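Lab meeting, item 3. Inverse folding demo.
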């Protein structure tokens, strides 16, 4: 396997198993590892072997409702290194609440929110204690933390054995952490509208479920092959209203100064970054609207456009193409409001801007 493909999960992992008596049996496991320095100096082959052993969970069944039918959900959140040497997680309570809703939405017993938050903090701490953690670098401040590093936390559900059609009643919940750098690199930020459907009324679009990712991943790869970075999904019925990016929410700053994002319906994933940016924009005195917005209005009336999610925070889009029409925003450069919001969000996350909403939780 080539460089860059290896998934470097941290040595400490967390699992919880739903028991018959309604309790969750929790376990922290220390997987094979060396020191981060020793691991960095290993040959690629040795390192791949070690990382593969870390990503092996022999107690989890291979054949189950998750691997066979996509009956699973997950979360994505980050812990950010702070200038004082500590690590803080951004709004884990919100991820906990969404994960519980997702599990319930897939017919599973919801994972208790308090256990979720405790496990998140504890896992980051355990890995940091053995040296697996990013360290704050003041150089990141120059580019709005575009090159900032953080810990990515990935909690997910995993069903009990089964091959018939079934719903998981006694799932596992697994948490792993991994180091991440910047997601969006400067360069191409063009988007094109997809003719495919991501979510439909009565479906699972509001759940952070495995199955929702199939069409967006295929479409994003097609868009990339066509020279775009992102693809935008419209509503299933009229193919007229903007819904989301491939795995991110979307915002338009209209030329009249109003910041618009599609209202939450069952076809839209309630992003925590989305919610946070609405708060930050309102605090700046920007008028915000959560409503339906047609692709025609978005393309003809927008001064700025950006997508949001835990991975990138905020990623501006330079243009949107639909059929043979292209709308370019702010001459293809990041707009003023986009930049202010990005700076404020990243500033809060890395501890450079006052966290007046109490979003950051210390590990
Ligand atoms: C995770 C996700 C988002 C972004 O949510 P955040 O909480 O901001 O990370 C947006 N859309 C979809 C489809 C997602 O899965």
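The presenter then showed the designed sequence:
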């Amino acid at each position: 396997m080539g460089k860059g493909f290896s998934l470097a999960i941290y040595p400490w992992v967390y699992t919880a198993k739903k028991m018959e008596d309604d309790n969750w049996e929790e376990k922290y496991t220390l997987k094979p590892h060396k020191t981060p320095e020793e691991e960095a100096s290993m040959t690629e082959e040795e390192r791949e072997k070690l990382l593969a052993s870390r990503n092996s969970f022999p107690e989890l069944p291979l054949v189950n409702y998750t691997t066979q039918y996509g009956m699973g959900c997950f979360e994505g959140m980050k812990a950010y290194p702070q200038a004082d040497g500590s690590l803080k997680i951004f709004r884990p309570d919100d991820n906990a609440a969404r994960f519980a809703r997702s599990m319930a939405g897939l017919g599973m017993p919801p994972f208790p929110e308090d256990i979720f938050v405790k496990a998140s903090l504890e896992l980051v701490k355990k890995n940091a204690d053995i040296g697996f953690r990013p360290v704050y670098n003041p150089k990141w401040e120059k580019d709005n933390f575009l090159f900032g590093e953080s810990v990515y936390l990935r909690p997910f559900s995993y069903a009990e054995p089964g091959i018939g059609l079934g719903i998981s009643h006694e799932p596992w919940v697994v948490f792993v952490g991994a180091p991440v750098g910047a997601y969006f690199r400067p360069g191409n930020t063009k988007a094109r509208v997809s003719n495919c459907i991501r979510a439909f009324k009565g479906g699972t679009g509001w759940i952070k479920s495995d199955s929702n990712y199939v069409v967006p991943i295929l479409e994003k790869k097609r868009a990339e092959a066509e020279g775009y970075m992102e693809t935008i999904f419209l509503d299933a019925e009229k193919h007229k209203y903007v819904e989301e990016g491939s795995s991110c929410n979307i915002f338009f700053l209209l030329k009249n100064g109003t910041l618009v994002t599609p209202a939450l319906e069952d076809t839209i994933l309630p992003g925590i970054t989305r919610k946070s940016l609405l708060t930050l924009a309102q605090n700046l005195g920007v008028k915000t609207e959560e409503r339906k917005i047609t692709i025609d209005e978005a393309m003809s009336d927008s001064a700025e456009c950006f997508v949001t999610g835990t991975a990138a925070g905020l990623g501006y889009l330079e243009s949107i193409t639909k059929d043979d029409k292209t709308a370019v925003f702010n001459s293809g450069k990041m707009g003023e409001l986009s930049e202010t919001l990005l700076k404020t969000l990243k500033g809060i996350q890395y501890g450079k801007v006052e966290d007046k909403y109490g979003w950051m939780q210390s590990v």
